Amino acid sequence: MANIYKNSKLSLTSSGVNTLYTVPANSRAIVKSLLVSEDAGGAAVAKVTLTDSSGTTFVIDNDVDLAANQKEQVFSEPLIMEESEILKINVTSGAADIVVSVLEINREDL
To answer: Does the pLDDT at position 110 exceed 80?
Structure first.
């Protein structure tokens, strides 16, 4: 088993669902933080979802509402993700930078 520390980053300026992180099929993951920052001097609104391996989508935060140049930590506690689950974000208005920090636990020997 290997522990792999990762981060994933997106800079979004238009609406649409974007994949932020996908757990590999041979791993589990612990999401430590998800930071969303408004970066265009206006307001931004984001929606964070988790899609499980069967394709069912669960809302994590439906209204990450940011004023100009504001940032918000979406998670107050770690989020456990299972094999093939997908963390997605949709910035429904404005522009935002997103950074997610993850500990990926690979169940196979290196």
So the answer is: no
